[in-house]
Structures are given as C-alpha cells and as structure tokens.
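so my prof wants the structure for this chain in the tokens format not the other one, which i didnt know existed until like an hour ago. anyway here's the sequence
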Amino acid sequence: MSARAAGLQSALEFFPALQGLAGVRHAFLGRIPGIDVATDRAQALARLDAAHRAARAQLGLGERSFATAEQVHGNEIAVLDHSLGANYCCAGTDGLITSQRGVSLGIYVADCCAVFLVDPVRHAIGLVHSGKKGTEWAIAPRAIAKMQEYFGSAPGDLIVQLSPCIRPPHYEVDFAREIVRQVRASGVQQVHDSGLCTACDLFRYYSYRAEKGRTGRMLALLALS
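here's what i got, hopefully its the right format
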C-alpha cells in the first residue's frame, strides 16, 4: 500500500450504528495526512479533491452522481428525487434527502456537525449540515419532516448518527446536545452521537475554530447501495 493510500485509509471512519445496515454505505473522512490545507475554503477543497474522489471510489461510489449542499448555514433541504449530473451542488441548501440509489450524498464540515439520517424501512436517507445557526433553525427536524412528507418515513424507524464536531469547552454552544434533543423530540428513538470534538484532536480532524479558519474540510458520505 502506498503512503497516500495508507493516509486515506487512516482518515476513513465508520459508525457502528450505520455500518451493520443492509443497503447503506457511509463514511466520515477526516484529516488526510500530507495535504497542506492552511488556506481558504475553496483552495483547501481543491487540494483535497483528489483524495475525496479516491475515498468515494474506494467505497464503490465513484461512478455515481455526487450531490452536495451549498451550505449557507440555513435550514433548506434539497429533495433529490431524480437523476443528476456527475457532480451537483444544491444551491441555497444545507441538507439533502433521497431515495435514489444512483446518488451519493456529501456534506463538508470543519467543526459543524454532519447528521446522518437513515430509514431502513422505506429505504431513504438524508445528510444534514448543522452548526450553531442550522441547529437554531432546527434543520435536522426539518429534514425528518421532509423525509416523512416525500418518502413516508416514520421517525420511529429512523437511525440518526451525529459526526464529530466542535464541543465545549472549545466552543461556547453545545449544539450536538441540542441536535440530539431536537431529533428525539421529533420522534426518533435511535440516536447515536460520536461524542468526539474536532478541536480536541487536530491529528484526526480539521477545526475551523482551532485553526483560525485556515484549514481543510471533513467529508461525510452517505448512499443507498
């Protein structure tokens, strides 16, 4: 295994609550060794693009449409119910939901939380970017409501997983705790939080706060197989 491949492999994380689900592929791609990302967001993502593409290929998602959200710290949800181009960014949105097997969902984070939503009964998924503002605007419950509306998802059937994100004392707001409270109030029973703080471990993660804005982005990936 080459050094680059080994670095990519070390950056991939999988959540036990999702890993055992039939028909679902997911990953959380953390800090990738050897890539200088001490720059602005656009340039950092450009430098990470090849590694992110390699990760998608490793997961068997390389040939699929890759949909991302623009991520404007709002609460709009894109419903992906039709075929897309190879790479598609949903303008003005911070969340994505779909029941399409040909689509891979992606959310970039660097302290904010990526919230994975999986309905193993209706075979639908969602991926949400929820930081301080998005959580205040209840974007995760909004995505759950959209999954109910478009796919008939029952909240009690959903499995929700929170990614690593910034937490106190490194940040003044514990939005991860609020996300958990919100989705439970929406009727979700199976809620899993990684409990990991991005600012606490700069070896594994990028942190916008700890690195003063000049850093890379983690990539959350979710797809139906």
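also thought this was worth mentioning. The longest strand covers residues 103-109.
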